[in-house]
Amino acid sequence: MLKRLQLQDYKIPLLFIIISTLFYISFAYNLERTDSTKLITLYTALFIFFYKLTRISRNHFKLLVAAAIAFRLIFSVAIPNLSQDFYRFIWDGRMLLQGLNPYLYTPESFISLGQFPVAQGQELIAGMGTLNASHFTNYPPINQLCFAIAALFSGHSILGSVVVLRVLIIAADIGTLYFGVKLLKRLKIPVSNIFWFILNPFIIIELTGNLHFEGVMVFFLVWSLYVLHQNKWKYAALLFAFSISVKLIPLLLLPLFFKRFNTNGVFTTYSFKKLIGFYAIVGGVTLLLFAPFFSFEFISNYSKTVGLWFSNFEFNASIYYLLREIGFWYSGYNQIAVIGKLLPILVIIYVLYLAVFTQQKSYITFIKTMLFAFTAYLLLSTTVHPWYLTTLLFLSVFTNYKFPLVWTYVIILSYIAYASPTTSENLWLISLEYTVVFCVMAWETTTKKRHMLFN
């Protein structure tokens, strides 16, 4: 009788997993990003089943882990269909194996010379697109190492390189699951919270499917946070530097460590030395990882490329688009050159405010300050590609806030821009996306019942 009841408990979850598997297969192998209707329909269905599965199967930990891994494996030999960035990843990795510094050359520069220093060079440049090929790479050293590993194991096959990159990303997700659960246990938070991240179709599609390395960055970040909670601050600093060396964005969070090394808001000589030591290790290791690529030309190229994200590129923004319209009304032209420089300053001021004035009474509060720092960064950015939400969603796992979870669903609307040959955004849909996000965020931050949302 007991076994029959146990089997009955698994019937609906297994049904949801089987149906989701079929949807993932269709998503991976039978979808073009220009087909907006199919894209949103499949994604909506996957999100509904993910939500239902996570809610009803919280006690079936092993089943959900197996499902999360199985869903990722579905994408094993699929070429990413929502992003072209992986072509640049493969290019950079093969450049490194040829002994060439990828930070010093644009792919476009080789076209003008009629030379292609890597295997399948023409195909890779055509795949990454003119915009990507015309700029210097902006991917930090450990990210470049991942690209080089793909080139080492598959230097003449694009699909082979995709498979290697995907294995690295899946391994990082498993690592995030492992350390995420351990940290949740230490903080006495239900371990089932990890499935809002690890089982989320947004994470599976954007990381495993489209090969974005935010997942590797998050792996080092959660590992760092876990060992920091054990007071192994030197080890934590090393891992935090690794996270920065995958994606630069954790640099934004560094000021928030200010209060992790004091006692009751007061610094002692010992704690101050630990804080300085933490920052010194993070800075030293990061610089050391960049050292093999160092030259004055590298500094110039890299700073210009990073600067483009604030002064030239715009996609799926919120507050920036409002300011842009005001700028158009006031001057008659796009003021991104001015607004793009102002917004990062506002983000830095807000992060410093959180670092100095927020009371971090617990480790959970510490993570919440990270959540709001990163939220401010995204809301004030000129460019918010879907995979940028990865870190925000991960941090939300350790809090009661679920607006990042809602955002990972509605951000699919930004992909409708690719249905147009000119990648033209529908500002009404962008407005809908951010209206939903702002409403949920306002509800959660202004009511004492926020812990009730999606519990």
Please report the number of helical segments. Answer: 21
Radius of gyration based on Cα positions: 22 Å
Secondary structural class: mainly alpha
**Outline:** globular
- Strand residues, percent: under 5%
Overall helicity: 55-70%
Largest sheet: none
Order of helices and strands: HHHHHHHHHHHHHHHHHHHHH
C-alpha termini separation: 31 Å
Regions with pLDDT < 50 over 5+ consecutive residues?
450-455
**How many beta-strand runs?**
0
Keywords:
mainly alpha, globular, 455 residues, disordered C terminus, 0% strand, single chain
Word description of this protein:
With 455 residues, the protein is mainly α. The chain has 21 helices and no strands. The protein has helices spanning 2-29, 36-56, 61-73, 85-97, 107-113, 121-128, 130-133, 141-153, 158-186, 195-198, 201-209, 214-229, 233-244, 269-290, 296-311, 319-331, 336-357, 363-379, 390-396, 403-410, 427-446. Helix 20 (403-410) packs antiparallel against helix 21 (427-446). The radius of gyration is 22 Å and the shape is globular.
SSE inventory with pairings:
Layout: H1 2-29, H2 36-56, H3 61-73, H4 85-97, H5 107-113, H6 121-128, H7 130-133, H8 141-153, H9 158-186, H10 195-198, H11 201-209, H12 214-229, H13 233-244, H14 269-290, H15 296-311, H16 319-331, H17 336-357, H18 363-379, H19 390-396, H20 403-410, H21 427-446
